[in-house]
Specification:
mainly beta; 4-stranded antiparallel beta sheet; 3 helices
Amino acid sequence: MNKKIINGLLLFCALIIFSCTKDDSFGEVNTEASSYVRSKGFFVLNEGNFTWGNGTISFYDELRGKLIQDVFYSANKRPTGDIPTSMQIIGDFAFIVVNNSGKIEVVHLDDFHSVTTIKDLENPRFILPINSQKAYISDLRSPWISILNLQERKVVGKFYAGKSTDKMALFENKVFILNWSEHYIQKPNNTLLIADAIQDKIIDSLVLTKEPNSLVIDKYNKLWVLCSGGFNYEEIPALYKIDPQLRVIEQKFEFPSRYLSPTSLVLNHTGDTLYYISQGIYKMAANALNLPSQPFIPKTNHVFYALAVNPSNGQLLASDALDYNQNGWVFRYELNGWLKDSIRAGIIPGSFCFMNN
């Protein structure tokens, strides 16, 4: 969910302007029996419309070359919920974070049947496994990080972050946490929080550009953080290169315009190349001295919304949200940027999760 979704009023207006009929002609939607089987492929988390509760999960079976729509509903005969935001596979289970419903759905990967629903969360965003016993859960509305017992699948504690929290990355028992939003907790959203994963507490922070939205750790053990500059374009967007051991900023790359709003920083499968969306899709070597000046994949008529890299073959996945009301598209690009194929997913395909076994 990006800035177009967090502002419900603006989205509602957009839905009125771009109203059209939902396209359910591709794949299987809300069927009594699903053809989902555990296989090599990837899940698409379709956010659905804010507050409508029509978020879905699609699965693309790479071995069969087939997309199965709404696999959660088909397996459990109930909706996924309002804004499925992220998904984390841990062992034989998938943890589906459903942001605006304040819950995490846990399903078995063999059949996608529900195992349990983790509740008592404000507005969860992402789950990060720390070890085999625990994980952290970030939250948009709460200044607390929740601690999840992975064996019991229960929240067993919290620690204070002081701000809203979003995407996270683990490096040598330190967790780097983005403070992306100031919508619900009105404190400056320009911070990279650093937590000790053994003591479960915030130990440090770095001030960055407003609205840090994505982060990766490359093969050289450098942390990269992409900042959009703010919902209202308050600051010039920037990409930061950080030493996670010393916890210092090594380099700041500023974008040429405050109105670009770059998002969705991801890393290639070998860990030495960055991709991000800035209208088009850009590609940058991790040892580059400057931002790329030309897109790797031009915007053309797309509304690129989310990126991911398939860890098994390096293919780049990009979603197109279209008008944020009808079913969006997922495009698969080869390593050279050539379009392999396109797949019709659900409404606002917002993130991906890969299953390679």
